[in-house]
Write a structure and sequence with these properties.
The chain is of the alpha+beta class. It is 39% helix and 19% strand. It is built from 20 helices and 23 strands. A 6-stranded antiparallel beta sheet has the order 1-4-5-3-2-11. Strands 7-8-10-9-6-23 form a 6-stranded antiparallel beta sheet. Helix 2 packs antiparallel against helix 3 and helix 14 packs antiparallel against helix 17. The chain is globular and about 75 Å long. The N terminus and C terminus are likely disordered. The structure holds 2-acetamido-2-deoxy-beta-D-glucopyranose (11 copies). The site of one 2-acetamido-2-deoxy-beta-D-glucopyranose has 6 residues, from loops.
Length: 656
Amino acid sequence: MNFQTCLMVILINLSAAVTAQNYGCFGGNYTSNSTYATNLNSLISSLPPNINDNGFLNATAGQTPDRAYATALCRTDFQKESCRSCIREAADELLRSLCPNRRQGILFKLICTLRYSDESLSGGAGAESYTIYSRSGQARFPEQFNQKLRALLRGLREQAAAGGPLMKIAAGNETAPDYQTVFALVQCTPDLSEMGCTTCLISSEQFICCENNTGAVVYRPGCYLQFGVAPFYNLSRIEEVRAMILPLPPPVPAPPLPSSPGNGDSNTTRTVIIILVPIVASLLIAACVGNYIRKRLKTKTEHIILENDEEDVSGEESLIYNFKELAAATDNFSDSNKLGQGGFGAVYKGELQSGQQIAVKRLSRNSGQGELEFKNEVVLMAKLQHRNLVRLLGFSLQGTERLLVYEFVHNGSLDCFIFDPVKRLLIDWESRYKIIKGIAKGLVYLHEDSPQRIIHRDLKASNILLDTDNNPKISDFGMARLFEQDETGGNTGRIVGTYGYMAPEYAQNGNFSIKSDVFSFGVLMLEIISGQSNNSFKNVENGENVEYMLSFAWRNWCAGRGKKMIDPALMSTSGSLRDMLKCIHIGLMCVQQNTSDRPTMASVVVMLHSFSVTFPVPSQPAYFVPGGVEEMSRSLAIKPTEISKNEASITELYPR
Ligand SMILES: *[C@@H]1O[C@H](CO)[C@@H](O)[C@H](O)[C@H]1NC(C)=O
Ligand SMILES: *[C@@H]1O[C@H](CO)[C@@H](O)[C@H](O)[C@H]1NC(C)=O
Ligand SMILES: *[C@@H]1O[C@H](CO)[C@@H](O)[C@H](O)[C@H]1NC(C)=O
Ligand SMILES: *[C@@H]1O[C@H](CO)[C@@H](O)[C@H](O)[C@H]1NC(C)=O
Ligand SMILES: *[C@@H]1O[C@H](CO)[C@@H](O)[C@H](O)[C@H]1NC(C)=O
Ligand SMILES: *[C@@H]1O[C@H](CO)[C@@H](O)[C@H](O)[C@H]1NC(C)=O
Ligand SMILES: *[C@@H]1O[C@H](CO)[C@@H](O)[C@H](O)[C@H]1NC(C)=O
Ligand SMILES: *[C@@H]1O[C@H](CO)[C@@H](O)[C@H](O)[C@H]1NC(C)=O
Ligand SMILES: *[C@@H]1O[C@H](CO)[C@@H](O)[C@H](O)[C@H]1NC(C)=O
Ligand SMILES: *[C@@H]1O[C@H](CO)[C@@H](O)[C@H](O)[C@H]1NC(C)=O
Ligand SMILES: *[C@@H]1O[C@H](CO)[C@@H](O)[C@H](O)[C@H]1NC(C)=O
């Protein structure tokens, strides 16, 4: 393999693509009608559905010499769904656009790594020389900081390496000087030996430790390392997976097992995929038994859920509210109890006899749905429960009246705060950052983790409610479902969004997808940072050119003047400028014209929580209206890479 040349190529490429998605292509070319192409394609498409709970999969398809090998590894602290979509995206990018027709490739994404090859991939060998890392931040007391960091990384490395054949990951924190806490996570592909994992991590550490930085990330084919002074991982997910996978049941000889690997699950894939489990046959058996037990557990849980469901259904009654009761609770829907008027009807504050406070939405439009469909939708929506979603408590149907009953969220909607000259002072950067992260998490739940994919389609500041601790809760989700049938994404004659937040493809053609929600989220995030609403934002330069928010943000951000976007009320507080700029950057990535350039909400959450990863440079946003011509040309004179170096962090490639 000619790594030398490849690395040179990448080195050059990388300056143009300082992105978090780094990749390499190796080996010769194959033709698209070859057996290898067939094997590779079926292998790659079989990966996402078969990925294990530990986020790792080592698979192969076909026979030598056309045999294809692949491995996928996700950060174990992410949910399986996010992992699957990461690998799906990675496969698509790698095969279609990054390494078309190349026999070998590797792609590092924020939460997953995908490799494929025409040669056996044993324990991170081969592309082992391939390392990508990024560093950021400067410790104020480097010696003490490095000392703490070293100790932390050593402990985690030992813990991860000793993790056994199914899971090698460890995360933890350590108090550091300057009132900081340093958080770190290390992970190896579980097929590495304890020694192999240790070696991989030690050499990763050499790239970044200890150069006095307060954050860094290293990607290698066999292992992953990240640290920073803000938490970025989910320890409870790691524990959850560990409990699912370990402790291993004792290996038992089980003759029928090897003949049916996957226990029938793989019936769905027609190609024979052999999942190779390293070293000892007993491990294979152990894994199968583990798998079997997990399945048993799973069916058991499903069973429990089913029982709950039945209760729910028989107690669908519990979701039904009496119309009179609600009328009484809201003083016959009096104007004095009116909280607001949305596209689907007015919302009233109410208090039930029990003293419970509620919000009642009185649907104004006839949904055209029968009672049964309406009920079904409401039952589904009531099942969506997340701390960042307003909880639906029930409904009432009486004649033509359709009411939805929600939990009452005390502090009102976000627009009343951020767009108000006085109240905006009440929410400092820390709160706004928390709000941004909360909204993002709520959307990930709607898009990926909920029982059914929900596209909000009308995300905006007035649909974000704040509770007494200023936790954000998304409201009005699923409303489109009550009026439209197919919600998996597509094209609709009826556009339900709000002017100012709508993605161009939705506003113009009615095409909606999770990426149109991402667009609205981007606008919302920029509003939260700037304290101005898109629809009232106007930058008038020389009394001539009128410029709107997205253009203004992009132009200034590109010219290294991202600060101009920031609400002056925030600049006087102790908020982290770095985080604000990071949010502007992410916001601009979300409002890009091309839907496939926009990140998914899951990636947004990763970016919001990561400290040191370099993000792709966003392209010009949709609705771009150039501002002052002179300024424009000046900003374009700056290369994107320089910007990302100045404002994000430095990514370097280190060939070994
Ligand atoms: C593979 O194909 C590309 C163009 O399709 C060509 O530029 C490249 O030289 C080929 N590489 C090898 C190793 O044959
Ligand atoms: C693949 O297609 C090319 C031309 O399109 C043809 O020359 C070649 O024989 C084909 N190979 C196979 C294995 O079908
Ligand atoms: C995949 O499995 C094969 C067969 O057990 C093993 O030789 C190889 O090391 C594994 N590779 C990876 C990267 O896990
Ligand atoms: C740091 O780790 C300890 C366990 O070692 C944990 O109890 C604590 O909550 C962590 N601190 C933070 C800020 O996450
Ligand atoms: C790290 O800090 C130490 C102590 O201040 C200093 O001597 C050293 O040059 C710094 N190293 C780097 C790479 O900046
Ligand atoms: C962390 O993982 C747990 C367990 O899967 C999950 O319930 C929780 O929502 C996750 N937290 C975050 C912040 O994603
Ligand atoms: C609501 O209206 C009903 C009749 O329409 C009336 O009997 C009742 O007193 C009203 N309640 C309130 C609180 O105004
Ligand atoms: C939210 O409500 C609580 C309790 O009513 C209040 O103490 C807090 O100041 C409110 N927050 C804001 C930002 O107004
Ligand atoms: C933001 O507002 C401006 C001016 O009202 C409008 O032209 C633009 O389309 C809006 N942006 C979006 C994303 O709708
Ligand atoms: C919108 O959807 C229609 C049909 O579903 C499709 O033909 C069109 O290309 C889509 N437009 C965009 C911009 O995605
Ligand atoms: C959007 O981006 C994708 C991948 O970068 C590209 O294939 C596609 O052609 C682009 N679409 C448009 C309309 O520019």
